[in-house]
Request: fold
Amino acid sequence: MSHMTQQSLTQRLANPTRFMDLSRRILPWLAGAAAALIVYALYLAFFVAPPDYQQGETVKIMFIHVPAAWLGMMGYALIAISSFGYLVFRHPLADVSAKAAAPLGAAFTFLALVTGSLWGKPMWGTYWVWDARLTSMLILLFLYLGLMALRSAIEDEALAGKLCAVLGLVGVTILPIIKFSVDWWNTLHQPASVIRMDGPTIHNDLLIPLVYSAIGFSLLFFTLHMKGMRNEILRRRLKSLTMAEVDRARTVSASAAAE
Amino acid sequence: MSGFLTLLKRDLLLQVREGGAVGTALGFYLVVVALMPLGLGPDLNLLTRIAPGVLWIALLLAALLSLPRIFEADDEDGSLEVIATGDLPLELATAAKALAHWISTGIPLALLAPVLGILLNLDLAAYPVLVATMLAGTPAISFLGAVGAALTLRARRGGLLLALLVLPLYVPTLIFGITAIAAATGGPSGFTASFLILLAISLFSLVIGPLAAAAAIRFQTQ
Reply:
């Protein structure tokens, strides 16, 4: 047993059975915490947080929009780290993680774009502007769609995983562009106001619901990601079982024919 | 180094002797640009204003059309596997093939652009800048394109997929190419900054493109 304790957490999770066991126990708690935090954040957003003196009630779209945008980018970071882990360390769960993260990241990016344009209509007077931040988020969505399309276009699943990992690492160069686009181009979209060197620039009454909402949505992301990984592992097991069954049936019928 | 040059020379010779390969991309470029005034109406002021953007986007599409050829023929007749197992590192081999694509497609398209500019009533002052930005930006198109071509080598519906994978990666090149032209022709100053970023994107692609393309090919020829 002593050599087991020396392994790092990622090494121990490389065993899919151990991952299935651990995730089965964690998942209900994670899902419950996510639901509780999101409900509490929405309660704060609708009943406690004051309307903004300039934006009125529309400021509350932020409680969905900002976490969605963060998670849209975090999803890609997760894909990039997983791709690296798969290509370099051959971690057997890394490809499963990258595959499960792609539709989730795409969904949150899409949510950020939709809520952003719903907020933009009353505030900027238009649903869409070709601003640096909006454009780079749209490119991020295209990258997700490209990753999913590439995976679905290649029949050999192991090969598809490796090629998606290459594409995931090439596409990661877009992330810093999105993060700093607001500082570099200084266009319509406001610059970062929560995570700054000199402290947040939004008022606590709005900041606190945002923090709860961000943590709640992040937990939701991890819940869905873990569930997605479990589903993918089960799907692969089912597939290899079916293939083994077909193989066995073929050898039986071949030996029957020989006799 | 001699292997690199041999491969480059071979690919360029193939492009020339195959016939029609380069011509198709140029013809496509011409037709797309000629369709623009038909779709947008013959207003010369409007065409002058949008000419750089139209020329750049049509160039991206024309280059995209020729990307599958970088590896396709070599994959079909098996020479790609010979190259992959040869003495030359596969990274250098993919770099040679992407460079051949740039010389045989990128440069002719960039040189054709000012001729097509006449069709769009492009401002005369913009001609040298247009060609300069295109010559600086097209290496990124060839080297990032090589990654897409390598990734979709064995994929179903490879051509359509290639466009979906590669066009988002071209966005920075397009943006800085256009801002450089706009800055040089009466817009806000800052031509040098945009042009240098454009060169930086090309240099960056020059490094990352062959590495990623070689990795993708290695997985598929194993």
User: Anything to note?
Assistant: Chain B has a mean pLDDT of 87. Chain B touches chain A at residues 144, 147, 151-152, 154-158, 161, 164-165, 167-169, 171-172, 204, 208, 212, 215-216, 219-220 (CB under 8 Å). Residues 191-221 of chain B form the longest helix (31 residues). Chain B is about 85% helix and 0% strand.
